[in-house]
Design brief:
mainly alpha; 71% helix
């Protein structure tokens, strides 16, 4: 597997995990009741977590740490650091 394919697979897994997490917020709007709703919520929660950790495994810790800092709201409005050589 080439590095480009590996990166594409990892990002795809991350996007899929995000979709499963977003489905959890849409569950109250679906016409299901009772046990079916609980089952769907449980499956979405487990699949979201499993796919997230698979994406971290495929992409590697370094890339995870890079995106983690970019997704932190505290870092959104900080001025960019200038690199001088």
């Amino acid at each position: 597997m080439t590095p480009k394919q590996r990166k594409t697979l990892g990002i795809s897994l991350f996007i899929a995990s995000t979709v499963f997490w977003l489905v959890l917020f849409a569950l109250p709007l679906l016409p299901y009741k009772g046990k079916a709703l609980i089952t769907i919520a449980t499956v979405c929660l487990i699949m979201g977590e499993v796919l997230f950790y698979l994406s971290v495994f495929v992409l590697g810790r370094e890339l995870y740490a890079k995106y983690k800092t970019k997704l932190n709201p505290r870092n959104w409005f900080k001025p960019k650091e200038k690199i001088t050589e």
